[in-house]
Structure formats: C-alpha cells, structure tokens
Fold this protein.
Amino acid sequence: MIQSILVLGSGSAGLIAALSLKRKIPRLAVSIVRSPDIGVIGVGEGTTPNFPRHLFDYLGISRRRFYELAEPTWKLGIRFLWGERGRFDYTFAPQLDSHWTDLPRPNGFYCDDDFSNVDAPSALMREGKVFHRQANGAPDIQPWHAFHIENEKFVAMLETVAREAGVVIIDGKVTGSERGPQGIAAVLLDDGRRLEADFFVDASGFRSELMGKALEEPFDSFGRTLFCDRAVVGGWARTDEPILPFTTAEQMDAGWCWQIEHEHHINRGYVYSSQFISDEDAAAEFKRKNPKTPDSPRVVKFRSGCYRRMWVDNVIAIGNAGGFVEPLEATALMIVCSHCHTMVDFLLHCELEPTPSMRALYNELTLATWHDIRDFLGLHYKVNTALDTPFWQHCRADTDLSGVQPLLDFYEENGPTGFCRYRMPRSQSDFGIEGYFVMLVGNRVPYRKKHDSSAQELARWEAHRAANIANAKRGIDVKEALYYVRHPGWQWNAEAPR
Ligand SMILES: Cc1cc2nc3c(=O)[nH]c(=O)nc-3n(C[C@H](O)[C@H](O)[C@H](O)COP(=O)(O)OP(=O)(O)OC[C@H]3O[C@@H](n4cnc5c(N)ncnc54)[C@H](O)[C@@H]3O)c2cc1C
C-alpha cells in the first residue's frame, strides 16, 4: 500500500500535484524535493476555466488568498487575429454550440458573415469589459473566466499553501535514482542524501528526471501536427495601455505571437518553427511588429509531444515532465489540473494499491487528452488561409489531422450542428466541440448544408446580438473590477472554507 509520495520538482506542476494528493488523501505523507539552482520555467501565464475550478472548488484555496498572493487578472478567452476574417473571439462560454429557442438552427449557422457578439463574454471582450455590472455597481463575476498569472508569483503562492497543508519541501538536486521491486526505490541527491518513497511524481519539467531519464519511457513527438519548437519571449511595463480581459493570439510569418495581460506588465512572445525562421530573424520580426519589446528577447526551446505512458511502475509524470504542447490555447496548466485530478481519483479507486489494469486505463485516458489537444491545436494552423509564407503553406499542406478526420468530414457535410460531438475524440480537455466550432467557423471552413435564413429570423438573431452589446457597454473593466475585489469589504459569493 502506498503511504509516502515524493514529488520531484516544485514548479506549478509539482506543487499542484502535491497539494492535490495531500488535500484529497490526507493520510499520505507527501514531500517535494526541488533544486533552487535549477529553478522553475518562469513562463506559462494563460489558463483555462478548469484552473479556477481546480484551485478553488477542488483544492479549497481561498479566492481572497489567491488574489492577494498571485495578483491575477481575468481572461475571458482568446482574441484571434487570425485567418481570413482577421479577427474572431474564442470565449469560455458556448457561443456556437448554443441554440436560441426562437431560432430554428444553432448559432453557428448564423455566423458565416459576421462572427461577433454572439454571447455575453464575446460582447464584453469587444467592449473591453470583463464583467457585467450589478445594480450596486459591483462586478457580476461569472464562472466563465480563467486567469492571467505570473508563473513565479503563482509558484510562490502554491508553495505557501502547500507548506500549510503539511507538504514537506526539501531543497536538493537529484542526480540519480535507485531501482526496487515496485520501480523506483529512492532518489539520490548530489550531497549524498537518499530519499525513499513508495510512489513518485515526476514534475521535474523538461528534464523529466524519472520518466524520461531513469525509466527511459519512449517520447512520442507531435512533430507531424505541430511544427513550432521555439519562442522569443519579451514584454514591457504597462503605461497607458488598457488591461485587456483576454489573451491575444496573432498570426506571424512563421508562427504566432501571444499577448498576455498583467496589471503592470504586458507579456508578449513569438512562437515559431525553427525549420522556417532563424532565432535572429524571429527576434527581428518580433521587434518590428512590437517596438516596445526588448532588443534581445529570451529564446525558449521546446518540443511538442508526450511520453508514451504517463504512469510507469510507481512513477506518474505531471506537467512538462510528461509532455508539452506549444502554448497556443494555453493548455499546460489545464492538463496539469486535469491529470492531478485523475491521478487522485485512480489512487483512491485502487485504495492506494494500484493494479496493472488501473495503470493501463490511466495511461489510455491521459494519452487521449494529449492527442485531442495536439489535433485541436493542429487545426488552428491547417485552416488558416490568410498568409502565404512558406511556414503557412507547409501548415495547410502537411498538418496531420488524421486523429480528428471523422469530425472534420462530418462538419464538412453538416456544418456546426451539435451532433458533431458524436464524432469528437474522447478527452478531458476544456475545449470540447465549442472549441472546434470556433476554429472552423472563425476560419470560414466551408460546409455543405447551409441554412437559408428568412428576414424575420435574421431580425431575431440581430436582436440577440444587440442585447449582448447593450449589456456589455454597461459592463466594468479590469482595472475597476480589481479595485472592487481588493476592497476589504468585498465578499466572494461562494467563498471556499480554506
Ligand atoms: C514559451 C512557453 C509559454 C508557455 N505558456 C503557457 C501558458 O500560457 N499557459 C500554460 O498553462 N502553460 C504555459 N507554458 C507551460 C508552463 O510554463 C508549464 O507547463 C507549467 O508552468 C508547468 O511547469 P513544470 O512545473 O512542469 O516545470 P518547471 O516550472 O520547469 O518546474 C520543474 C521543477 O523541477 C525541479 N527540478 C528539475 N530537475 C531537478 C533535479 N534534478 N533535482 C531537483 N529538482 C529538479 C526544478 O527546480 C523545478 O522546481 C508555457 C511554456 C513555454 C515554454
């Protein structure tokens, strides 16, 4: 029976894993070993709605504490400066997979020409507002938001909460491991210490000390679907720019650029494929299009892919130690939260005595999520017809989407009907059919079964959009909403107990 768990690494993945285990299975002795010399990745700032659900509802971290220590801003979705339309907004609420009772077809069928202000959050995004306003003037904070966070502040907050929860944190650099009958018996530190445990979580980031190095699990590259492998990361201190309530993703000559909004800082980065542009040329294009970025931005290298199994013997890999996809759609923390939840469920279901078939099922489920996200991101590139650079030509011609071909064929014949969901891959991602629709409709991917709307129908459709716009215009912007939630008298509606 598992009684002790050692987590290797205290980036956001290791700390979320340790906290999830300790909070949900308090009888476990949970420790972390981490190397302050190696440090954390220091990037990774956009999230999706499963992140607040995991933090507040699952782990019971208090919102007040999170806002005080991590200093987040809100993210309602992603503005895509992308494709033939030039611009469309992806929100975390159903825009297209939704159906007004006074209209015969779902929303997606009315967006061929104009895909804007389709739901409340997309209208708020257009108006630069983050929430609707309550009658007393305060923000009406709805659950369809995520956050922008700064990696290092967030990690520091998690560390404080983890220590309070009883997680022991040990400083030391792991240089090797010892094998035992269950898999790994102990890890060895550079100062000669030996740390034993019944079970290990590898959260050592791209180094993947246990899953990759010690257990030598094969790594499956996503290189046939996702071609980007580097980013230049820059940013600047905010002056008079408004704090936008969304992430921006903008197409570039050999990839795309993110813009993430912090209260006092704007974080910008260019994700590109080194097959199509050199680091110097990427930095030059980045600077030309964003004159406020530093002259020598930091270059981060990565590979998109995952280990064939996330659970081998007595080791589970979480975060970058298990796999990584490039940051379009900001999926890393989403996967971390989802996998931590799944890991805890599996350990509870096997009463801390895992069986081979439980491990096999865990590996099947987690791999399906990786593959769904790979294909979902690949779709963003494949259907973008706006630019004719060699990179984008290659994306259109060669992105492998065979994993979602049944869904794409069904869409091509039937359009954005909710029945497309029956052709979706099985997955635990936050995107679902709505995410696919936003990319397909947003990029005007053709389908055959068009709906011919009557004039009355179109008038009703426009009335819904106009109502969204009118409500959004009365909304509240990020700066004012932050002021409200920081006020000592502010009450969270559903404040968690801890
Ligand atoms: C360019 C870029 C942009 C990104 N943008 C986003 C985004 O918008 N949203 C998002 O969710 N994610 C994003 N990510 C991913 C995100 O940063 C990470 O997935 C996430 O923070 C989890 O990191 P981690 O904890 O796995 O790894 P890390 O932060 O690297 O932590 C690894 C830990 O292991 C320790 N360690 C490693 N080796 C040893 C050793 N031998 N001995 C002891 N300790 C060791 C380190 O000290 C550290 O504590 C981005 C990533 C990149 C590269």
Observations:
- The pocket of flavin-adenine dinucleotide is lined by residues 8-14, 33-35, 38-41, 43-47, 151, 173-174, 203-205, 207, 209, 231, 269, 300, 302, 319-321, 327, 330, 332-333 (CB under 6 Å).
- The longest helix spans residues 356-382.
